[in-house]
Amino acid sequence: MRISARADYAVRAALELAAAGDDASLKAEAIAAAQGIPHKFLEGILGDLRRGGLVTSRRGGNGGYQLARPAAEISLADVIRVADGPLVSVRGVRPPELSYGGPAESLLPVWIAARASVRKVLDEVTLAQVAAAELPAEVQGLTETADAWTNP
User: Fold this and answer.
1) Residue 83 counted as domain residue
2) 88: in domain
3) What whole-number distance in Å separates Cα of residue 11 and Cα of residue 15?
4) Domain assignment of residue 76, yes or no
């Protein structure tokens, strides 16, 4: 799985909003500065998050962005899907739409299993959990395996 810069920036921006609290608004400039995200790129991402129903925005001196619902109700997958589309695709196609023949026929279940694994983590971890550094035990456990932090 590849996490694009766009998805990474979207999640980090959403985490800044989550950490600010339910009633706080943050300006795009403040989010960009806090996370080292190019401001113009972030504006586009925040627009997508707004259109996707994850953030709201207000104009004016007291304006800014805030989460559209509590951080505990927004998963990392929600943010990534709005920013980048499906969590797992093969050549831009969702796995259930693929068809293989011959010796590659059993490859499709592998792609489906990979998608299910990614969903299991990203659909279950919320912005609130990450912002509070309180990851679910199952996710934390995955990071504690001997090879989790190394590249083969």
Assistant:
1) yes
2) yes
3) 6
4) yes
Domain containing residue 82: CATH number: 1.10.10.10
In this structure, are residues 21 and 72 in contact, taking their beta carbons and an 8 Å threshold? Answer: no
- Residues ≥6 apart with Cβ < 8 Å to 27: 63, 64, 65
Q: What is the pTM of this model?
A: 0.90
Length of the chain: 152
Q: How many structural domains compose the chain? A: 1
* β-bridge mates for residue 37, sequence order: none
Measured CA to CA in angstroms, residue 25 lies from 13, 16, 38, 50, 93 at distances of 12, 10, 19, 13, 37
CB 80 within 8 A of CB 10: yes
Q: What is the DSSP string of 46-87?
A: HHHHHHTTSEEEE-STT-EEEESS-GGG-BHHHHHHHHHS-S
Residue 106 within any structural domain of the chain: yes
Please write the tens of the pLDDT for every residue from 5-54: 999 999 999 999 999 987 889 999 999 999 999 999 999 999 999 999 99
